């Protein structure tokens, strides 16, 4: 099924050997040729020495999920030769450094030996150069084998080395070495190769964390506190990088404050302190950080302090697989902290949405006066995605929510003529009015606390009042339904009985699977969840269908549980489709689950 | 504790400060702590200090953690916003609040359990970040709300009410604060109002991290004669005489001349001055090593060194270090914070 502009190349290298930048140049070049690509970095929790892989799926049709079956393996790491060879599809190719020739025990794979180390040793004296340029030599060989546009490649090299122009020529020399060798020794191009296309035109190539950091900047966030943890680190770093460029006054003063905290408890504490004091504040973390932040999330929930938390989910439980992806914090985030708590979640499906939902999260947090958690993951967060360009409407008015200034406090009377009280439900939307420290000499001061409080923020141990306040906060969740993004529904068969619910990073795999199923005559309607609380559309979609697959990347069908509890969908009709091996989801997996259920005989035969 | 609500009427003849406010305007609700609790004396000293400094109460933010001490902010400055956060995490809340608005005065109130045990990490990092705040530990050497367990500041061998000696070394928060870079470090005693009030004033005036460890006997669980955190013990062993402090507000003139060699005047950034009466000429609070020696030396003799222990005459605070704008971040208009669609188009261009 592979062919022109439709194949998978995988680079097997050693962590810390400089391959990342060469691989990035390769992917960027293809993207700039207009070809949709989806690079996936499969890396170890290590700085140097362990195996690392970089998969690039090329799909002119725009299917950007990971796909099993490698057409061309660039095998640069002897540690993993055996498994790398095994992954190549019959009829595929394997390129390796043949300086030390070896036998490859597969007849159905074409071996492309390039004496990379030997060529580098002849060309460069410096050991570091000999090592680093190896990566560009294999890129050069691929340029011939896959028919890469050399002008585009050169442009990508130049961009990668901006500020180090002297290195461009040396890198292009390395490319030339590999390219010339391939042209001379192999039948170039291979049947799988590239040609200019339109699919990626107008799009951008960016990671979700970069996008989310930018979203926070556009949202006007000024307080950021974080603690380093893979895979969320690059989000805070992106915010800082963008802020240093776009948020510094002419005299060098920063319009933002970033604290690299001592731990995740402090990180969320700083963010909550900032939110309480009227700044837009956020933190970013991953699984273990969510566990540590839980107590504080309960405080922000109960004391009604706006704060935004980006959770870049990774493989759990415990330390789990820090460099692999999962969607396994859904329940722990939806109900983070002890006691009755419930949090607003947003589920971006790509970097474009990491930007837009990342910005929207701040509006929601201030509107609803509660924590909002953006549920990204390692796949979206750390991999580069070909995605729609970022868009910003300059007419957008940031929703700062119900905050009273001194003048409003002076005049404030509710419908019953009462003065302001911090937790009074004046507008019957369960959202009270808040005040910021320092606003008015005599009005609006109150005590923010995690202990039980009445409508005027006074300490109480009166059970009736306690329950009344809890009920109002729960009602706020109903109000939230009017503000959160609505799900995306795709109807392929109006009278269809089968539906499928999905969210986040599995989106490309699901869409591809549903297209393939439809080509085989199986039409499945689909709903992509974008937020929790679920809007009514989710329950009605489930009611419309006899059976609904729920695709998610965790063992315990967490989203399915949430649908049962919160949307009151009967569990019997929710069929779990679960993947939790840490790898980005493939369409084949989704197709397999659906077919197994709908056409068990056919699935068994296959 | 008292269950009687405070009457809101004021006596018309109550003295007023420069803002036209009386002491009553700086009070909070009625304390629910035990009668005689040292914390209530610290509360009273805070009220007095803020009143005398003519501070607008609404420009002060009170932040606390959990415990008896952390309840105290309810009992002073009812016109100030307060935040009673979670156990041991007052420093991070204060850090975030301060980042958001550098123009307010931040008073953090914590206890010895809240700071020296569960919150030790946050305390250390707030010091090294030099958050511009006054951090007060109401230090009674025990956990009051859970009925008298030892805290990490209780002196080794100082016994519990039942007579069991504490087997572990005490953490000395003042020594830690000095080592971590606090610019202002003082220790006082809840029963010594004359010393405490000027120290609170000086701490509030200080630009940078000001730490105030106030020994505050727990009348219910740690005030027996053998406890080193009891009223009797501290009164008998307080070395307050080593240096006596006067706080001189910017508006006041120094009218008294002190004998050379026996006093030192230290100017603070807001124009106020501290006049130190150095009865012990050996101790210069501008010398961090000497301060630590004084604490350790007294402690070895079973004495408590109180007063201004250390002061760095000028210190960069967190905002100086982070180079943040002079305006509060929470007051910046969105037009300055959101770069808009044109800048985004350029970013899109770089990602193509």
Description:
The complex is a heterodimer of chains A (606) and B (352). By secondary structure, chain A is α/β, with parallel strands linked by helices. Chain A has 4 domains: 6-185, Pyruvate-ferredoxin oxidoreductase, PFOR, domain III (Pyruvate-ferredoxin Oxidoreductase, domain 3, 3-Layer(aba) Sandwich), CATH 3.40.920.10; 206-387, Rossmann fold (3-Layer(aba) Sandwich); 403-480, no CATH class; 488-605, Rossmann fold. Chain A has 20 helices and 23 strands. In chain A, 55% of the residues are buried. With 352 residues, chain B is an alpha/beta fold. Chain B has a 7-stranded mixed beta sheet with strand order 2-1-3-4-8-7-12, with helices on both faces. In chain B, α1 crosses α7 (193-205), α3 (90-100) runs parallel beside α5 (120-129) and α6 (173-180) runs antiparallel to α9 (288-300). At the A-B interface, β7, α7, β9, α9 and α10 of A face β2, α3, α5, α10 and α11 of B.
Outline:
The complex is a heterodimer of chains A (606) and B (352). With 606 residues, chain A is an alpha/beta fold. Helices cover 39% and strands 19% of the residues of chain A.
Assigned CATH class of chain B: Alpha Beta
DSSP strand tally of chain A: 23
**Pair with the biggest interface:** A-B, 71 and 60 residues
Helix content of chain A: 25-40%
CATH topology of chain B: Rossmann fold
Q: What structural class do the secondary elements of chain A suggest?
A: alpha/beta
CATH topology of the largest domain in chain A: Rossmann fold
Architecture of the largest domain in chain A in CATH? 3-Layer(aba) Sandwich
Number of helices of chain A: 20
* Beta-strand content bin of chain A: 15-25%
